[in-house]
Amino acid sequence: MVRSLWSAATGMNAQQTNVDTIANNLANVNTVGYKTQSAQFKSLLYQNLQTVTTTANGDPKPTSSQVGLGVRNSSINSIFTQGSLLASNSDTSFAIEGDGFFSIRGSDGNTYYTRNGDFTWATNAGGGVILTNTDGLPVLSSTGQAITLNSNYVTSKITITKDGTVCYPDASNNPQSLGITIGVYQFNNPGGLEREGDSLWKVTEASGVAMNEATNGSLQKSNIVQGYLEGSNVQVADEMVNLIVAQRAYEMNSKAITTTDEMMQTANNVKR
What we know:
The chain is of the alpha+beta class. The protein has helices spanning 2-27, 236-269, and strands at 37-43, 46-50, 65-68, 71-78, 85-87, 94-97, 101-105, 111-114, 119-123, 129-133, 148-149, 159-160, 165-169, 175-181, 184-186, 194-197, 200-202, 211-212, 223-226, 228-230.
């Protein structure tokens, strides 16, 4: 009977994590480039009450008798479906159509990756301008260098082609390449990336190394769309349904604990 108490307790803990995950998805419904998460579950150990054996007449029993000992969270997976493209008034807003990621140099010197293309031109120490994210971290080019321009360029006239090439108009107002391309990278297993907060992702052994779209000809190239941002891929209706299911599962596990407590109380009162 005590098994049911522990099994139900593990169910409540697992569903609490599930609710936390759903709540985080809903909280980030307006976060640019956010990718929804999904909690996965797996059963715990099973206790053999009776193994496959024979009856008193010597006939073989077809099945054994096992009772489960609860559940736990096995993983929280990120779902990398394409988010909706949202129009932006900023010339430094970029959305990615495809599987690519922008690369960002963190304050610690390491390279991180993001789908959040809400960038801006900032003044650097040399008097020029540098393309950064909203936290001032440099956006990297396809060669892994910060995208910097001298002070002669008017940032409002800079355009970006769909392959990420930085262009500036000539005397005839025709965009000309500046020889700089915004870096876009892909991963064999994006689900293995580690979240770092601020819409940034960190490379892990599970994700594999970053593959540069500019140098890897086997990759299907992503398109960069200027004047748009990729919204969160959270589906509010689905998350609300998942929240109701998780809440009901939590209540049922709580009811199992209450029922077990009443059964134990009844057994304890038998001797009285």
